Amino acid sequence: MTGLRYVYAVCRPFGTPLQSQLSGVAGDPPRALNHHGLVAVVSHVPERDFAEEPLRAHLEDLDWLTETARAHQGVIDALTTVTTPLPLRLGTVFRDDSGVRTMIEAREEDFRRTLERLEGRVEWGVKVYAESEPQETPRPAQKAASGRDYLRQRRMQTRSHEEMWQKAESFSNRLHEELSAFAEDSRLHPPQNPALSKATGRNVLNAAYLVPRAHSEEFVEMVDRTKGEMPGMRVELTGPWAAYSFAGEAT
């Protein structure tokens, strides 16, 4: 089949085949391209959509981007069940197999070093949301008898608001410290934008943890024990994922 080469990940050779019905980006099943003892997992994609100019335009199309990202992630998830993949950035495309091999050779040392560090490990995501937030109103609930009473009520509202965020920050910091001490590595990401994530509440912790696959059950139990620990705090756990946050992918 002709077309450009879309690269999902680089990994070590693996003997277990991927699911036979697995469909990749643009509907083309992924295949393994072996080179220098490493494997690039690739699909053929049409030039009309994935050449430099059309790809740049497509990346501004939310529907197209969502569909492509879902297919990309599906291949990464399938790889994670059979090996330790080093995911590449969404939209990593080369002209042909020769271009992919050249990329592997140029980054071979980094790939091998990173794969060694990530071998047998997965990424878990933990988010904490503050679900209850004091409601700001133009006027206090009870009519103030005087200007002094009004100012006193406003101060009380402000103090309540500050105390709530202090508790949320303290809870999140303590949880992050405990999970980081258990995990081999951790990353703090910027809080999610609620307009984009559609999640309720304010995101006060957005972190990733690198955990040996063999210790994942214990990690999950640690997170589960914190759920419901503090009223108004919602703890969400996602994973296991390929170690995107720890791959050091820059191109």
From TrEMBL:
Localization of this protein: Gas vesicle
Organism: Streptomyces coeruleofuscus
Protein name (Swiss-Prot/TrEMBL): GvpL/GvpF family gas vesicle protein
Keyword rRNA-binding in record: no
Region called Disordered, residue ranges: 131-159
Assigned protein family: Belongs to the gas vesicle GvpF/GvpL family.
Lineage, top ranks: Bacteria, Bacillati, Actinomycetota, Actinomycetes, Kitasatosporales
Primary residence: other
InterPro entries: GvpL/GvpF
Keyword Membrane annotated: no
Keywords on record: Gas vesicle
